[in-house]
């Protein structure tokens, strides 16, 4: 008797290429540029995806995420439109806090996933996927017709955004500040500060699974200086490839691979998959590096590799159950596990091996 089968689709997207911010800096760092979501972005730098992944897990990785859409929702009716447009309850989001949320479609799918930031009393900043920015903006502007007391502005080209993730992120970022302070401890905390001769909005957020991580917002004109100074203080430049592998290892969804449309073009119900002869869809997967650790999180010399994946599964399947994955016409054995990563000591993220090796 065969184990249940999970289908592994191959999804290829096409991107429009435009000139990126800081292209000269990226060239000197050995960036391999690719089209992504309407931007020309670094897939990886000179060290390569594997080393960038490991550098983030043991020290700090620096990502230019300026391609992400940044929409400002302002005005006296800003909260009312967010309550209509988002899956989470924005009314419980206090000042100087952020939350992960979804923009649902009328039929129960996801138009996009996003982070909502509340730096100001009457303004919310919503960071959305680059490839969906125009669709999200159009969606909000259509909703705005019923709310004259609110407005939605696209700040993407007027602002820059970098992400600093890893156990040394706080030490590196603290040395950059010239005024103000870092956000209070706790996921989603926000603060305003000054650093690298720029006014910064700082969030304890990120999409890598690292317990310690920050995202910095600044004016586009001055976005290059924080990037350069963070590199000088020891952060490793990290591209899209490692950003995706870190996201995958952390078990975080990716729009277009688990949210949005499935390989047949049908809308995926949020956190569900349709019934059929298969028991699920693998949304993303690959072989990833991990640091060998022992004791209290001390990193041993060298690293290992492990194949992992994320999937939308039939709810009758349980932890520890064996399945078969169909990958481009070939079958591979797999094991259902609760997660691939867990918090380790001293602000680290530790790889979980199943079964332990």
Q: Describe it for me?
A:
The chain has a domain at 5-9 and 251-351. A seven-stranded mixed beta sheet has the order 11-12-13-14-10-4-15. Helix 2 crosses helix 7. It has seven helices and 23 strands. The protein has helices spanning 23-28, 49-58, 78-85, 133-144, 169-174, 224-232, 240-249; strands at 5-8, 32-36, 39-44, 61-64, 69-74, 97-104, 110-120, 123-128, 151-154, 159-165, 177-180, 190-195, 198-203, 213-219, 236-237, 254-255, 258-259, 280-294, 298-313, 322-327, 330-335, 341-343, 349-351. The model is unreliable at 5-21 (pLDDT under 50). By secondary structure, the protein is an alpha+beta fold.
Write the layout of secondary structure elements.
Layout: E1 5-8, H1 23-28, E2 32-36, E3 39-44, H2 49-58, E4 61-64, E5 69-74, H3 78-85, E6 97-104, E7 110-120, E8 123-128, H4 133-144, E9 151-154, E10 159-165, H5 169-174, E11 177-180, E12 190-195, E13 198-203, E14 213-219, H6 224-232, E15 236-237, H7 240-249, E16 254-255, E17 258-259, E18 280-294, E19 298-313, E20 322-327, E21 330-335, E22 341-343, E23 349-351
Low-confidence segments: 5-21
Helix content: 10-25%
- H/I helix tally: 7
Q: What class do helices, strands and sheet pairing give?
A: alpha+beta
Order of strands, widest sheet: 11-12-13-14-10-4-15
Instruction: Please report which band the strand proportion falls in: under 5%, 5-15%, 15-25%, 25-35%, 35-45% or over 45%.
Output: 35-45%
Mean pLDDT: 86
| Element pattern in H and E | EHEEHEEHEEEHEEHEEEEHEHEEEEEEEE
Main sheet: strands, sense, barrel? 7 strands, mixed
Q: Globular, elongated, flat, extended or rod-shaped: what is the shape? A: globular
Distance between the termini: 28 Å
Beta-strand segment tally: 23
Rg over C-alpha atoms, rounded to the nearest angstrom: 21 Å
């Amino acid at each position: 008797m065969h184990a249940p089968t999970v289908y592994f689709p191959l999804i290829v997207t096409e991107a429009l290429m435009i000139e990126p911010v800081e292209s000269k800096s990226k060239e000197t760092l050995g960036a391999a540029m690719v089209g992504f979501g309407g931007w020309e972005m670094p897939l990886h730098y000179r060290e390569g995806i594997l080393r960038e992944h490991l550098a983030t897990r043991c020290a700090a990785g620096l990502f230019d995420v300026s391609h992400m859409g940044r929409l400002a929702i302002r005005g006296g009716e800003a909260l009312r439109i967010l309550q209509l447009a988002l899956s989470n309850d924005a009314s419980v989001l206090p000042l100087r806090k952020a939350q992960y949320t979804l923009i649902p479609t009328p039929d129960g799918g996801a138009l996009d996933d996003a982070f909502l930031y509340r730096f100001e009393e009457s303004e919310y900043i919503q960071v959305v996927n680059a490839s969906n920015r125009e669709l999200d903006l159009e969606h909000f502007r259509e909703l705005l017709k019923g709310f004259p007391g609110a407005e939605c502005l696209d700040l993407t080209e007027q602002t820059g955004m970098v992400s600093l993730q890893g156990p040394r992120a706080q030490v590196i970022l603290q040395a950059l500040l010239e005024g103000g302070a870092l956000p209070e401890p706790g996921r989603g905390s926000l603060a305003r500060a000054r650093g690298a001769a720029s006014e910064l909005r700082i969030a304890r957020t990120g999409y890598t699974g690292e317990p310690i991580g920050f995202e910095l917002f600044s004016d586009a004109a001055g976005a290059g200086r924080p990037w350069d100074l963070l590199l000088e203080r020891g952060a490793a430049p990290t591209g899209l490839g490692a950003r995706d592998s870190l996201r995958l290892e952390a078990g975080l969804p990716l729009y277009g691979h688990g949210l949005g449309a499935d390989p047949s073009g049908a809308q995926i119900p949020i956190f569900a998959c349709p019934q059929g002869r298969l028991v699920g869809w693998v949304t993303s997967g690959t072989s990833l590096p991990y640091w060998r650790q022992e004791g209290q999180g001390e990193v041993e010399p060298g690293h290992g590799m492990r194949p992992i994946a994320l999937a939308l599964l039939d709810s009758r399947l349980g932890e520890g159950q064996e399945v078969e994955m169909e990958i481009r016409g070939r079958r591979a054995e797999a094991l259902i596990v609760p997660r691939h990563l867990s918090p380790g000591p001293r602000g680290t993220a530790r790889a979980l091996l199943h079964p332990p090796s």
